[in-house]
Amino acid sequence: xxxxxxxxxxxxxxxxxxxxxxxxxxxxxxxxxxxxxxxxxxxxxxxxxxxxxxxxxxxxxxxxxxxxxxxxxxxxxxxxxxxxxxxxxxxxxxxxxxxxxxxxxxxxxxxxxxxxxxxxxxxxxxxxxxxxxxxxxxxxxxxxxxxxxxxxxxxxxxxxxxxxxxxxxxxxxxxxxxxxxxxxxx
Length: 186
Fold this sequence. Notes:
By secondary structure, the chain is mainly beta. The chain has a single domain, classed as Jelly Rolls. The protein is built from two helices and twelve strands, in the order ββββββββββαβαβ. Strand 6 and strand 7 form a beta hairpin. It is globular, with a radius of gyration of 16 Å. The N and C termini lie far apart (about 35 Å).
């Protein structure tokens, strides 16, 4: 049984051009955030969807990763649009390439590691609101591109402290990867 998300996740700012009554955003529209070396383009946030879901496009480079963690409140659906990504769900690590879909139920351990030169993932999070975690730990993106400058890289302590506010729990500091990579990311 999952617990409803905290009230703090129901606040925030809407995506420019979005409307809970219905909307269409173009390819270059959305709210841009640089997060730990990736570009996140939010096409839907909690305030845009009456808290039903959040949706973003994640563009990142080889070596980008998310450590083993879990979300107390949210389920995630990943669509790999481009790239070669290891996604661990529970005790299983799978190679996800273009066209793959990965479902992660609430309160399930998971991690991500990008092997290809670039990757693009489309992620739906339900219920909405977890985008605040990324906004708080990231920074507004000045350009619609993966950052090529020095960017804010949150510390483990930052991840843990911010995660506590949003039901995010760090389980292992490194992602799980396929054995072919030697078990640890390069």
